[in-house]
Amino acid sequence: MVWLAGHELRLGWRDWVSLMTAGRRNRARTVAIALIVFAAFMHLFAYWIVAGYADATVGSDTATLVGVTGTLVLSWSLLLSQAMESVTRAFYSRSDLDLVLTSPVSARKIFSVRMGRIAAAAVIIAMLLAAPFINVLAVLGGPRWLAAYGVVAAMGAVAAAAALALTIALFRLVGARRTRLIAQVVAAVVGAGFVIGLQVAAIFSSGSISRFAALQSHWMLAHAPDTTSAFWWPAHAVLGDVRALTAVVACGFALLAIAIALFCARFGDHALAAAGVSATVVRQRRWSLAFRRRSPPRVLRQKEWTLLARDPWLISQTLMQILYLLPPALLLWVTFRHGDSYVVLIPVVVMAAGQLAGGLAWLSISGEDAPDLVASAPLAAGRILRAKIEAVLGMIALVFAPIVAVLAMDALIAGLVAALGILASAAAATLIQICFRTQARRSQFRRRQTSSRIATFAEAFSSIAWAATSGLAAAGSWTALGPALAAFGILVGVRAISPPPAR
Amino acid sequence: MHSPAQAPVTTKTNRRPALAVRGLSKRFDRPAVDALDLTVYAGEFYALVGPNGAGKTTTLRMVAGLLRPDSGSIAINGIDALADPVAAKQVTAWVSDEPMIYDKLTPFEYLEFVAGLWRIDARTAEARARDLFGWLGLEPHAHERCEGFSRGMRQKVALAGALVHDPKLIILDEPLTGLDAGSARLVKNVLRERVAAGGTVIMTTHILEVAERMADRIGVIAGGRLIAEGTLEELHRQTGKTAASLEDTFLTLVAEPGVQTVAAE
Prior knowledge:
The complex is a heterodimer. Chain A is 78% helix and 0% strand. Chain A is an all-alpha fold. In chain A, α2 crosses α5 and α13 packs antiparallel against α14. The model of chain A has no long low-confidence stretch (mean pLDDT 80). Helix content of chain B is 35%, strand content 23%. In chain B, a hairpin with a 2-residue loop joins β4 and β5. In chain B, α3 (107-117) packs across α4, α3 (107-117) packs parallel to α5 and α8 crosses α9.
């Protein structure tokens, strides 16, 4: 068991390193330096956020307990989302399943260890993410805050247990074929939903985007349980109550142990069912059973649209990128609804267009599953690329045309500015993806951001610059030229530092 | 088109080059292909054999227009493939060892896509597609998404895609890798039929028996150079082993002093 656990941990570690370095060994040092810088930045950020709470003590008032508990629940929802992703991945990656099941080791033992590895990963991720905040609080408020590490570890364990239970419940309810998609969508919604929900509540209750505003509202405080309730144990534990800490840690890991004991026998069956999903047949219905006459660029565009339309997971992954832009959009709308609200809505839409175009451009240009076929076709490389760009911009037009149309009906200039901003932002993001194009499978979409961080940052800054340009232009300000120049500067910089195309 | 099972196997060539490669070179960190000269005649089945890393795949990828050579020339059916790659690709098909198809498309849609890329008339392409589906046993699966297909099925779809535009030159890189006996025989029959109909096939393979049985001529490549070429008898004569198998002849040829392999593939 110990040897097996070591083996699993080694695999997990290598997977993580590969994710961080995008599989390139020479990046290890750069990644290590980036992580150190990131850790330092996170400690500064944590200082800015939590320094004022370092004096909170055991037996605090309801407001403090609500604040701490709310933060824990928020963090736990993110952990649950992460754990569900890990569990789904473990079920659907066939990898060593055949070897494992044909080996003379009890499958229950093996899957217990595997589930333990998922839980360990959830716990470690939880502790790493919480570390800057806990460290800052411990330095400012005393070592009692270190108890929070125990609470966070217990939260990771409970998240892993809940993820296992939820995923196995999905297997039983909807079957292996649909579980992957539903689990991934649920994971994304759980992760984003709580944050977005709190922000929306905060915006409507006090006009602030802060999550804490909703947690400190009168309604919340009035309906909170008494401070002696067991409901507050995790909060008391975070604040240094050793008895509460012991109870929370014991309960957390007991739940995990129960989940592993209950589900380890079924893990193998479900993993086998998941591995067999690719062998199931999907018949495709068509309106016409004859070949259609189409030009090469049109068949390329149509292919891109068909592949995307038939992959709900990719749709959810790409659209999820713009989900986080909803709260700021809502805040801007609420804040300025009595004035010239378009000025503040347009930047959000423009930025969303850039982000969406970046993802779609990666899928279309880098995520080509048959690159040899397309490259050996009798078409100039430029025409192929142009058709793919058209496919991306076509999808952007489809998503954003209704918004632009509504804007234009109410204020023609605002609609025009929004349309131009969306076009510029989407085109810039697409050009950045062209400069950093690589060859990958579409299924590697989630790793695109680690394969080129420069492209990721350039894409984000370019979208921001075009959003600012559009907002200022909609307000009729000449200062719009500033961010527009910055956006062009980003493109020039990207072109200069991008790797030469492979020959 | 004839049914492949009834198609006669031809060994005749009319000596018009379908592929003429001169002084072809490609260097990665080491030379992968080194001043290679190669001629394949129209209506010929040519097998390119060699040890791992000999430069076979790199050579064929350059011919298919997937890699740009550092120097040299490639002419396909008399078309300068480096000066006019689009015209050269119009008459060429490429099939790699790893079938690259789209999981979310059906074989029918895949062939429609390929026919569109090669600007083949829709009706003609559809008729060819139906013939190919029949020959390759894909008919019952024509409207199923490829994501559930076995490797053999995927390779057959890729081969159908390569043939749907009726290429003059078919380039195949280890097309039989991972295929079961039945699928391999189907693929071999289809290729034989193409050659019988006047098409040209150039194929790399590690299965020397396939080269021995199917090829009109065999080229042996090592260290990025063509070290021997000819019919089976001619190769035997070069090594002085007249009664030997191709395997013996091949091992003798690649074991000769000065023959080195590179790991650039």
